[in-house]
Amino acid sequence: MGVVVATGALAPAAAESGGYTVGGRAASGVADAAASPIPGDTALARPRASARWSWPLSPPRVVGAYAAPPSPYAAGHRGIDLAARPGATVTAPSDATVHFVGVVVDRPVLTLDHGSGVLSSYEPLAAAGLAVGDRVTRGMPLGVVGEGAHCSGACLHVGVRVDGEYASPLLFFERLPRSVLLPLHAGRASPASAGGRPAAPRGRPAGPCRQARGWAMR
Questions:
Q1: Residue ranges of the M23ase beta-sheet core domain (predicted)?
Q2: What range defines the domain where residue 24 resides?
Q3: Which of 17, 74, 137, 179 sees the fewest Cβ atoms within 10 Å?
Q4: Chain segment 111-161, per-residue pLDDT in tens
């Protein structure tokens, strides 16, 4: 059987087992939600991880969303892309065993086995002296971001498979930190009236609203 590699696919799938099927419809955006399985598919709809994984890069910034194709060999994006710079240190998201380490096509790839049929892969990742069977612990340096990324700019592609079926990595990692919007004039003290109460907005009465003569408020 020939090996089929789709654009943006997790290449180790072909290298390790001759190709994996894909479960789930396309999941747009980076929402923290499970991909619904396609009709008749028996792929897992939710992860079996007992705890959320830590992010391999800090701070995490998703620049490419997961999008499972409607059929095993259709185009899609079987993972997420994290913004990265070449040489950035990549750490283990949880305790795991090295399942695969090597070069696939033109990219250095590392795959971890988390148990219960869950694998995670990282590319391009130049592993730091790791070999198949080595144990790694959460937060342990795995290597550095290498060359050969499929992004237009530098990035780290992260993929997850459960029993051979691709799943959104966002289901396994810690939730992304929410953006905090600061006031336009952050740090500037707001004016207060003599009585200690904030001054009324310009153009509006300071006291209770009164019905103007000749019209009624609705």
A1: 76-169
A2: 12-28+49-171
A3: 179
A4: 999 999 999 999 999 998 999 999 999 999 999 998 876 677 789 999 999
